[in-house]
Each structure stands twice: as structure tokens, then as C-alpha cells.
Amino acid sequence: MAAKKSRAEINFIRLMDATTNAISNEDAKKSFGNKLRKYIEALEDFLLEMKNSPNPPSNQALEGYTKKLKIVRGLVISDEMPSVEEKSAALDCVSHGEASIGEDTPLKILRQRYKAACDRKMKEQLLEKDKKGGQEVEATKRI
Q: Rounded mean pLDDT of 113-123?
């Protein structure tokens, strides 16, 4: 029989699902704005509450929750970066290994989508033409 989940654990799971859905949907992400930061803070609070509860979830479950939170936090932070280069660097901090550990395929796919979109934008920036005379951008001349 499965162990009964605490209120903090149930709230964590629900909020994690809502946050993951929000960052995976472009329209929802725009409408949420700064709420995603608040969601991350609430998830951190729930995780701390679970760790300090008298009947905490298993260590394996806590480890999984911590990894999911780290991945989601990294995706939110990378999305807030002003330049594509900074976004790419932030996404690299969310290691691919952590995103692929366990059975959390939606987070793995979400991280891959973010990384692919970021790489695509960087490629477009490197290859775009200068508006003045159709000259290639200085970075592409060196290649």
C-alpha cells in the first residue's frame, strides 16, 4: 500500500504540474509573467516543509522533487535572460543529465525544446545579414 502523502507534498505536486504546464505553453507563459517566480518560491517552501515534516516522503522522492525544481527554476531563469547567449549559458547550467534522470519525460522534452529554440535563435543571429549593404555580420566573416 502506498504511503499517504502530506498536504505539502500534494500541493508541491499540483503546483509543479501547473508551473510545468505554464512554461511549456507560450501563451500561458506570457500571461503568467512574474507569477512563475512566485510559483518557484512557493515550490521551494513546500519542499522545505516536506523535508522538515515529522513524516517526510522517502529520500528518493525528495531527491526527485529537488531535481524537478532545479530544472524548472533553470528554465524560468533562462527564459528571463535578455540575450540569446545568456539564455544558452543558463540552459547549459540545467544539465541534460538531470533533465533525463528518472521517468520525468515532460521535463526532459521541455528542456530540449528550450535548448533547441535558443540554439535556433543564436544561429539566426549569427547568420543574419547587415541591413546596410547585405554584408554578413562580422562574426560570420571570421568563420
A: 77
